[in-house]
Amino acid sequence: MRHDYRMSEMDLGGGAAPVLRGRFLYNEPMKKHVSWRAGGAAQRAYIPADLDDLGWLVRSVPTHEEIHMVGLGSNLLVRDGGVKGVVILLHGVLKKLAIESRTHGLPPAPADIDTAVVYAQAGVAAPKLARFAANHDLVGGEFWAGIPGTVGGAIAMNAGCYGSETWDKLVQVQTLDRQGRLNERLRDDYVRGYRHVALKHPREEWFIGAWFRLARGDGAAARGTIQELLKKRIATQPLNLPNAGSVFRNPPGQYAAELIESCGLKGYRIGGAQVSEKHANFIVNLDHATATDIERLIEHVENTVEARTNVQLIREVRIIGERQ
Length: 324
Description:
- The protein has helices at 9-12, 51-60, 126-135, 151-156, 219-236, 256-262, 291-309; strands spanning 23-29, 41-47, 67-70, 76-78, 83-89, 97-100, 115-121, 138-139, 160-161, 164-165, 170-177, 182-186, 190-193, 196-199, 205-216, 269-270, 273-275, 283-285, 318-320.
- It is of the alpha+beta class.
- Strands 6, 7, 8, 11, 12 and 15 form a 6-stranded antiparallel β-sheet that branches.
């Protein structure tokens, strides 16, 4: 059944109702939009025309329906039964990336460091942000080159690698709430931790963009660091097979990959899903894996590691949708 998400005059307080300018996709296979290349379909997916259009769409979705924002789908699994509600595809849409000229409203910069502020919208790929910063002689953002997702996802999970995290550089975020309103929030509005971010006073909002403060420095050296990080990533991660990056957070003082390997799980397989033989904290789609194969393997790894080491692994990846 086709759904009409045009705003009503009552919603707008009178006047003509706007027509959404984006594109709906019905029963859209989510395996096309997640890096595991597995899973069911979205009942309705929407590609917004721009930020204004996204605001109208969010405001018009009935409150009883879920909204899922998806970037590159690099830490997401959609179950084989599919996902209800509306999936909004942001990659390639919210793509503004610029050196920010304004300083009003942003926290002051350290007095002893020459810095600049970069504004990046949620649909920008994190590696693109890393290259943009280095090309403008800004340093400290090189680690983003190793994050296979979008800025929105990196903000939402405080993504990081090689000793740095996204919120280390972040000074302010822009969010969109369920009423379609844009908000600007400071770091102190959030509880932040290792692969975890949450509003201190929870409400339904999504990250739309952020302002990052980076030090001015040697852009050529930063680009060299990016190249070295990419070489390391290629050497240590199974990038030749569909995967979702690290499946589990590292427990305090330990590495999830080492725990998994110590339990003899490297190479363990359920259906078409396999614990990577190259990096044990990766699960790869080896041979037409279903989302069920992947989820069962995640659960098996969790149960085995807890039984043998008494360590409870915490997932980095997000699982949504209905079981088949």
